[in-house]
Amino acid sequence: MPDYTVTEAEPRPYLYVEGSCGTDPSEISAAMGEAFGAVMAAMQRDGIAPAGPPLAVYHDYDPAQMRFRAGVFVSESDAARTVAGVKADRTPGGKALHFVHVGPYATLRDDYDEMMRWIDLRGLTLSAPTWEVYVDDPAAVPEAELRTEVWSALN
């Protein structure tokens, strides 16, 4: 079980594209891969270097369809640029729940289920969005060792 912590999140700028897919892990993987590829291609075309790892941002929850923003952290100045095909935003600042998932992306759901129980026991309330920061490159790190930071805004 992860170590769930209530903390203060710092806003960070990112470039993103929006996507959606079903909730099967293979669909999620394909849709995210395509979206991250589009962001990275736009950044490369416009000479923008990442200022951190990739992330996915979720503003709502639907058990039948997953809607997301797939993006990459960038500098403040790069976030202010107009980049064709992508949008810019910031992760929220303020009170947030944070934990680190270790293992395959497909098992993140287990930690989210546990997170909801943890929140309920403490009388906390989530607000949107939730964002996942993909710390490790799945091409370079064994699946069992992948780290994903999860942040959820709290009321």
Report on the structure:
With 155 residues, the protein is of the alpha+beta class. 26% of the residues lie in helices and 37% in strands. The protein has 3 helices and 8 strands. An 8-stranded antiparallel beta sheet has the order 1-6-8-7-3-4-2-5, with helices on one face. The chain is globular, with a radius of gyration of 15 Å.
Observed structural traits:
155 residues; alpha+beta; Multidrug-efflux Transporter 1 Regulator Bmrr, Chain A; eight-stranded antiparallel sheet; 8 strands
Task: Give me the secondary-structure topology.
Blueprint: E1 5-9, E2 13-21, H1 25-45, E3 54-58, E4 66-73, H2 76-79, E5 87-90, E6 94-102, H3 108-122, E7 126-134, E8 147-154
Antiparallel strand pairs: 1-6, 2-4, 2-5, 3-4, 3-7, 6-8, 7-8
Major sheet strand order: 1-6-8-7-3-4-2-5
Q: Report mean pLDDT, rounded to a whole number.
A: 95
Count of domain modules: 1
CATH topology-level fold name: Multidrug-efflux Transporter 1 Regulator Bmrr, Chain A
The span between the termini is: 24 Å
Topology, number of strands: 8
How much is the radius of gyration in Å? 15 Å
**SS content category:** alpha+beta
Strand content: 35-45%
Question: Low-confidence spans: pLDDT under 50, at least 5 residues?
Answer: none
